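Researcher: Next sequence.
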Amino acid sequence: MIRVNIIEDERIVRSVAGAEGECPLIAWAQENEKSPGHCVFSLTGEIKDIIDKDDVFELLVRSTLNCLDLRGVNVAFCSNKELFDGLKRLGFKESARGVEVDIKSFFKPCCKH
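Model: Next structure:
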C-alpha cells in the first residue's frame, strides 16, 4: 500500500527539491522501502514539480490538494508546462498562471444520489 506524507522539514525539502527562496513542501509517496514519486508545492497553491516513477501522478495531486485545502488555500495552480496534460486530465483549466483548479470544486462529488 502506498502512503503519502507531507514533508515540511526545510533540510529534507531542500535536499530533494533544491529550492531557492521560499521553502516548498513535498508530498512524498512511500511504499515499503521505495518511493514511487513526489510532488513539490508551495502554500501559495503552486504545484512546482511532480516526479512520477510508478503511475502515482493522480495520488500525488490529490494528496497535495488535500493538504492545501486543509490549510485554507482555495485555488491550486501550475506554471510548469510539462505537467499541464496530466493536470488537465484531472480537471485543471487553463488560466493566466498556466493551469489551475478550484480545490473545493475538485473534491465535490460529480453527481448527486
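Model: The first strand starts at residue 3 and ends at 7. Helices lie at 10-17, 57-70, 84-89, 103-106.
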